[in-house]
C-alpha cells in the first residue's frame, strides 16, 4: 500500500472557521492543500469573516488554502435581489474565491411569507444560475440531508445518522411532513442541471444520493458537467462496500475523473485545536486505508467488516488532487 504522503493531496471540503493555524500545520504534515467552503450556517462566523480567515492564513506552513464563497440569501424575496447577489459574487471572485456554494437552507429553512419553501429551481435563483453558467464559474450544491433523515431511526444505514437524528428529532424529517420531501430536493436540483447543461455543478456529499450508487451513476451519466465530492459520506461507501465491494470499485473506475475527496472537517473555534487535529488525522488515515489498501477494515459506522478498495495510484491521484484542481480551477 502507498504511504499516505506518497503524493500531494487536496482536502477539498473543509470549514476554516477559527483564527488559528492548526489545520494548516496538519496539512503540511500529511502533504495536503485545502479548500475551505464558506457557508451561511448560522453557527459559523459570517461569510465575510470566513473569507477573511482564508485570505489571512493562505500559505501558512507552505500550505495552499483556497476558498469558495457562497450566495447570500439575505433579502432574496426583495426586488433586485438577483442583480445584487451577482455583484457580490463578482466581488468575491475578484478577491480570490474559486466558486460559489448553494447550501441546504435553500429547500430546508427559507420560507416565503405564505409559508412555502424556497427551492433551488425557483425563479428567484434563475438569473444567478444563468450568470454562473455563462461565466463557467464552479457551483457547489448541498441539497437536503442524507436520505436517512427521512427514514425511521431503525432503518438508517450508518451510526452517525442514527445517533444524530435520534438525538435531534426537530431535524428528523421523518417526523415532519410539513417540510419538503427528500425527492423534492433532488428533483429541484436536477431541474437546475437540465436547464443549465453548461453549468459546472459539484454535487457535494455524493450529490445527496449517498444511499444508492445507481442513483449517483444515473446523474453522472445524464449531466456531464456534474462531478461529486465525498465529504461526510465515506461511511456510506463503507456500507456499500460491505454489500458489494466490486460495484464500488467499478464506480470509482468508471467515474475516476468526476470524484473529489473531502472530509467536511470544521475548525470550530469553540473546540480545542488538539481535538480537531485528532479528528482530522483519524479521518485522513482511515479514509486512506479504505481507498488505498485491500485490508479487512472495520468502522463504528457500519456493522459488517469490509475490505479496502485498493485503488490504483492513477485513480487515487485524481480523487485526491487533480479532479479538485480541474473542477475548481485551482492553480
UniProtKB/TrEMBL annotation:
GO molecular function: carboxy-lyase activity; hydrolase activity
Pfam families: Amidohydro_2
Keyword Nucleotide-binding listed: no
Keywords: Hydrolase, Lyase
Domain Amidohydrolase-related, residue spans: 80-330
GO biological process: secondary metabolic process
UniProt cross-references to PANTHER family, sorted A to Z: 2-AMINO-3-CARBOXYLMUCONATE-6-SEMIALDEHYDE DECARBOXYLASE, ISO-OROTATE DECARBOXYLASE (EUROFUNG)
Name this polypeptide is given: Amidohydrolase
Originating species: Fodinibius sediminis
The organism's taxonomic lineage, starting at the top: Bacteria, Pseudomonadati, Balneolota, Balneolia, Balneolales
